[in-house]
Each structure stands twice: as C-alpha cells, then as structure tokens.
Predict the structure.
Amino acid sequence: MGIEKGREMLEKTIENAGGCAIIDGGFATQLEKHGASINDPLWSALCLIQDPHLIQRVHLEYMEAGADILVTSSYQATIPGFLSRGMSMEEAESLLVKSVKLAIQSRDEFWSTVSVIAENSYKRALVAASIGSYGAYLADGSEYSGIYGDDVSLAKLKDFHRRRLQVLAGAGPDILAFETIPNKLETQAIVELLEDENIDIPSWICFSSVDGENAPSGESFEDCLNVINKSNKVAMAGINCAPPQFVDTLIRRFKKLTHKMIVVYPNSGEIWDGRAKRWLPSQCSDDKAFTSMALRWREAGAKLIGGCCRTTPSTIRGISKAVKGRP
C-alpha cells in the first residue's frame, strides 16, 4: 500500500468522520457477553480457534454502533502462545492472518449492505491489526507495570515481535495498532523493528498509565514519545486501557510532546487485576459520562477516540453520535 497512501486513507477517514474518527470498544468483554469462555492465557485470541463467528458478530456490532476503525482480535495472539498449545508454526501464523481476514470480511460485508441506503450515516471502516505488548503475552499483568525482568533486552523484544509483525502486516490491515505498551524499551524495540522490516503501513503506539502521569514503568511519557518522534513509520501515539479520567490531561501533555496524531481509547474505569484475573470494584464511568469526556478529548486534540476493556457497543454509539454530531 505504501506509507504515504496509508496515511492519506487514514486522514480521509478522519475527515469523513468530521475531524475525529471513532475506534471500536472492548472486545474480549463483549465476546464474554455472547458466551465466549476466555479465561485463558490466550484470552480473546482463544476465539480465533473456537468461536470465530463470535469475533465477526462483535465486529458487526461495533460497526453498527458507528465505529470507523475495527481493531482485530489479535491482541493476545502470539506465535509463542499458540506454539505452547501444541500448534505448528504454520497453524499459529494462519490464526494471526485469520484475525485480520475476519475483520476485513466483516467490514466488507457490512459496507455492502449499508453503502447504498445509509451512506451519510456510515463510512467504510478501516482495520487495525492489534499487536499487544510482551507483557500481554506473559499474561501476568506486567503490561500494567512495565517490569519485564533483567533478562528482557531490546534484542529479545524485537525477536518476540518480529514474526508476528511480519505476518500481521502481510495480511492486509490498514493500520498496525501496538497496544498497552508499558515502557521505553519496548517502544524502542517497536520503532526499530518497523524500520528494520520496512513496514509501509501507518502505525500507532499506545501506552497505558496507572497514575495519570507516567508510563506504567514509571518512565516519563516525554522519554517514550521522544523515541516515537524519530520514526516516520509511526503516525499516531496515545493512550489505551487507562482510566478515562486520566485522558484529558494526557492528551494535552502529548500535544506538547509530539507532532503525531493523538489516539485515545481508555477502559471504563474499572481496574484489572492481572494476577488474580478479575476486575476490581471501582468507580467506573457509565456511557453518558464517557460520552461527555469524549467530547472534551476531541476538543483537546484527539483525532481518534474509542473504548477499551469493559466499554461496549452502547458506549461507542454514544461517542459516535456526540462526536460526529449526527444520528
């Protein structure tokens, strides 16, 4: 596709959406609502094996809600993870490709049904291939701490991500979405890998935050964004799976620290205990409050807005209506 053409497509999508495109919402939690069992180290990626029809159902629900960008079901889909389940390399790579193809197929089928009768209400969605952090693969909550251990080097992180990146990029997504990145080291690994592999697909790198001030590792966002600013391959930077109350301030900070487009898709405000594998009670935001905050995020300068864990199609519908200013 080429990096410039990809950026033009992205910018056109944002323009068609009224200056701020809408990303879909929580994927794994929505799969659970439809009966999927994902209490597993593979998490939502387990549905690539067992329930691919549910993946397409969730993609459809988010497009109906007004999402302009679909994020694939590959966040926790890794080659080492699939190999540990006794699969072959060929089978593992096939499942990665499948995650992208399911999203593309869902998008194309949906568009074929609405493009004529509802052209003003829907635009053809883009597909973002989700690439979770090394901590997501470990499934021990370390994507929310950034503490990977002394044996995890830059080279090890590049090796971990390399083949998955190659396969997902080759499957034909419109965007590469590096999600819940917790530290500067993994940011550097991603930026170098995109250059090493000469990936010509626009990418975003999103961080989480547990304090609203820094990356989960405790490193400053300035240090992390300085790495991204040197890359022509990364078009967007932002925040995902952090409490929504942190986002407004972080957008304003990011705007001062980077020239990249800002993307935000926080969680509902509930807190995930990665070790106990459960959601902790907390003050979460309902759809009305989330929508109100999303309008502030747009005014602060975010160009892509959506939701992460525990947000739903209802959340995205509210954001889409409010941000785009149309039914």
